[in-house]
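Exercise 7. Predict the joint structure of the components listed below.
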Amino acid sequence: MTRLNPKYIPLMATAVVLAAVFGTGSVLYPNFGTPRVFVNLLNDNAFVGVAAIGESFVILSGGIDLSVGSMVAFVGILIAKLLQVGCDPFLAIGIALCAGIFAGAVMGCLIHFFEMPPFLVTLAGLFCLRGLGFVIYPESIGIDHPFYAQMLPQLSILVAPKAVLPFTAMCFLASVLVGTFIASFTRFGRNVYAIGSNENSARLMGLPVAQTKILTYALAGFFSAAGGVVATFYMQSGNPASFVGLELDAIASVVIGGILLTGGVGFIPGTLMGVLILGLIQTLINFNGTLNSWWTKIVIGVLLLIFIVLQKLISRRAVTQL
Amino acid sequence: MSDWLSDLIFWIVFAAILLGLRRQRIFWTVGALGLLLLFNQFFTPGFFHLQVLDGHLYGSRIDVLNQGAKVMLLSLGMVLVIATGGVDLSVGAVMAIAAAVSSRLLVTQHLPAGVAIAVALAVSILAGAWNGLLVAGFGVQPIVATLVLMVAGRGIAQLITEGQIINFLDPTMVYLGNGHLLGLPFTLTLVVVMLLLTHFLVRRTALGLFIESVGDNDEASRYSGINAKQVKFLVYTFSGLCAGLAGLVACSNIKSADANNIGLYLELDAILAVVVGGTSLQGGRFYLVGAVVGGLFIQTLTTTFYAKNVSSDIAPVPKALVIIAVCLLQSEVFRTRFARVLSPIEKFLKPVGSWLPRHLPTTARHDSPKS
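Solution:
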C-alpha cells in the first residue's frame, strides 16, 4: 500500500471530523441525517462559504483578509439601495462585484507596493467598508424587487424528496468548483501556492509576485462581494450593521478546512468542509434545544485548537523526515 | 483662572514636552496628538473647557484620559507582545472574561470586591498564560494561537454570566472605573501606575533587551543564551493581566458585565495604538510610552468625532484613513520613494537650528525589517 502523502492529512482529518459530526447528529436525532437538513445547511451557510473561498486564496498566499464581514454588509446595503432607486438587479449585482474587486485590488496594491502588513491594511478595509455602508444608508432596507421576490425562488432544483436545493446553495457550490479550478489547475493558482510557501523563492524563480498578490486580494474582494450578493438573496434585505465578525467565521472555516495559516498548504474543498463543520455544529445545537448559542463559539474554539495542534505536529514530522 | 490663560499654560507645557522629546522616536506620536489637539483648540468650541465640580476636574480632555484608559492599559501589554514579533488578538475576549468573572463572584456569590477583582485578574493571567503556552510551548503562529481564545473567549464569558447582563452596585467595583483620586479620574492613576511598573520591569532590568532581541531574531537570541520561550510566555501572560485590568475598568464604567460587547474590537484599537506609537509590527524595538500616547491619540480622535457630531457609525472611515496614513509613513518603501520630495524640506529646515528632530521621515530607521 502506498503511503498517504502528508499534504493530504489535514484534508483527511477535516473529512473525518465532518463525518463524525454528521454521524453524531444522525444517531442522536432521527431527522438529522435527512437530505433536507443537509440542503438547509448549504443554504444557511452559503454566504459564509462564498466569502471563505476568497479568504482561502488570501491565506494560501500567506496573507490574511479581515475585511470580509464589512464587505458582505457593504455590498448588501449597496444592492438594496440601488434596487430601491430603481436600478436593474443585474446591473446592481455587477456594480457590487466590481466594487468588491476594486476594494480588494486597492488593499492588494497597498500591501504589495508599500510592504505594509496585510493584517493592518485589511483592518483599515474593515473599518472603511463598515463606515461606507452606513454612508449609503444607516438602516436596514428590505428588497421587494420582483427579481428577488419571484425569480429567485423558481431557480431551485428538487434534489431529493422534500429537499430543494435553493439558488444560494448553488452559488456556494459553484464558487467551490470555480475556486478549486483556479487554485489547482491554473498558472495563477500555482503562483499563489508558491508565494505562500516562500515569497522570496517565488520572486527569484521569476514568478510575477506583484501581479499575483494584487490579483489574490482582488479575487478575495470578488468572492467577499459575491458572498454579499448571496447574502441579499438569503436575507432579502441589506443592513450595514450586519455580519460583524463574519471574517472570524471565514478564517475559522479555512483553518478547520486544513489550510495552513502560514500559507502555501491546503486545498479549497477543505474550506467547503470547514464551513459545513461550523454549520453542522450550529445545527446540532439547534436540534438539541437546551444548549445555548455560546457553546457554538466554545466548540469552534476547541476545534480550531485541535486543528492547529494537528497541523503543527504534521509540519514538525515533515521537518524531521527531511 | 480664565480659559485662555489655562489654554496658554497647557500649550506652553505641551510645547516644552515636545521640545524635550525632539530626539526621541515618540516625537512623532506626541506631535500627531498635538496637531489633533490644535485642531480641536480652534474648531471645536468647548473642547478645552475645564471645570471643577465637587472637587473633581471635568472637561473633554479629562474625558479623553478617562475613556482612553482601557486602550492605554491594553496597549501596555500589546506593545510587549508585538515587540516579540507576535500579536494578541484575544485581549477583547479576555476583557469580557474578566468582567464576567468579577461581576459573577460579586453578585451571585456575594464575595467582597477585593476577592472578585483578584480572582478576575488571576483568571486573565491564566488566559494570557494559555496564549503563551500555545505560542512559546507549541510554536503556534501568534495570530492563530490567540484567535482560538478570541473566538472561544466570548463564549466562555457568556457561559460564566449564563448569557445575562449582570448589574452591580458594589462601591469598590464602581470606583474602579468611575472614581476620582486627587480630582482626577482613578483610571488615570491606574494607567500611570501600570506604565511605571511596566517601565521599571522592562527598562530597569534586562527583560526589555531580551524582548527586543527575541523580536529582532528569535534564533540568534536563543543562541546567545536568552530563553526565548520564557520571554514569549511572559509577555503573553502580562498581556492577559493588562486585558483583565482593562476589562474590570470597562465593566465598572457601565456598572455591568455584558459578555457580548465588552472589549469588542478593542484589540484592533490596541494594535493600532502600538503601531501609532512607533513600534513596528515586525517586532524588535518597542516604545512603551509611545504605545500609551498612541492610545491617547486614538481616544482623542474618537472624542473629536463625537464633538464634531460625526455619527459613530461613520467614524470608522476617517479612522481607517488615519491607519493607512500612519502605516504609509512607517513603510520603508514609501519613505524611500518619497525621499525626493521630503529631502529638500529637510535641507531647508536643517539650518533652522540643532533643535529640530533627527527623525524626519527620510532618515532610515534603526530597526531594519526582518526578511
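Discussion. Chain B has a mean pLDDT of 81.
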